[in-house]
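Could someone model LMY7XDAE with this protein?
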Amino acid sequence: METRNAILRASLHSAALSIQIPQNHSFSTLTKIHSPKWVSLNIRYSFSSRTLLVKSKTQCRNSYAKIKCKGVSDIEEESPKPKLRRKNLAVFVSGGGSNFRSIHEATLNGSVHGDVVVLVTNKQDCGGAEYARDNRIPVIVFPNKKDGQEVFSAEDLVITLRSYKVDFILLAGYLKLIPVELVRAYPKSIFNIHPSLLPAFGGKGYYGMKVHKAVIASGARYSGPTIHYVDEQYDTGRILAQRVVPVLANNTAEELAARVLHEEHQLYVDVAAALCEERITWREDGVPLIQSKENPNEYF
Ligand SMILES: Nc1nc2c(c(=O)[nH]1)N[C@@H](CN(C=O)c1ccc(C(=O)N[C@@H](CCC(=O)O)C(=O)O)cc1)CN2
Ligand SMILES: NCC(=O)N[C@@H]1O[C@H](COP(=O)([O-])[O-])[C@@H](O)[C@H]1O
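Reply:
Sure, complex below.
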């Protein structure tokens, strides 16, 4: 097939390649110049609905090289990847919302293939709620009581989140217990970030600076954020991701909090990206794993 022969003019200095391919077909190349004489070339050649991949490592004599495919085995057919639907995210906060802002910014810059469609908070004047209003993200107050009377129930919250077609719920500094109705309505779809290496320093009473003070007082040499699935109790859901932050001998709780928070921001964006790209898988023993984006054969 004529497509199997591509005459290449490799200008090894600028790594510019020109390829003579029949008209009305598209192609893309990936080149790697190993040395003045050797170049690797992957040609992705698409026509109609088929994509062919020609891989070759070729010795270039002077500045021309003729790539010949030895047979069909040189050509792999790439089935077109189904275009992933953008996912809808609900974020829950109670405070400043720096994790929420990191996630929102990542949805805007393309790092996360999703959109924050609603913010939920128990404190309608907190920093996270203010940021949401400034960015035209709807804000829901939950729990919401007036004169001790519940005016917006857990069932109301489930119905409202369904109306926004929420795929994933991300807790980011939310300090209230998520009701069982919501946990059951969104199985394996609610996540929380906690500022210690769970299961250490977690559970009722462990939030905010209380966590970091307990870590410092314990003499622990390492801390760091944990992202876990949310179940019906505080901080007991399956661990999905962690980052390690050394605890320095002279660290105050505030200094440790700042370093852990910095790691949280990147970790939550990485996890949100994996969720929206459907790169979560479950090990046989029930441990959730994240598939590497760079190398799909690797999990962490
Ligand atoms: N069903 C769940 N709900 C929530 C979880 C969870 O894992 N399952 N995680 C928390 C977040 N969190 C730790 O990561 C956490 C938040 C708050 C508390 C706590 O002790 N809160 C106090 C009240 C604090 C306040 O109102 O200011 C309390 O319940 O007495 C512990 C852990 C979010 N929800
Ligand atoms: N147990 C829950 C808990 O302590 N969560 C912690 O609250 C902070 C919220 O900061 P943010 O509002 O700037 O994202 C974060 O450090 C988060 O890990």
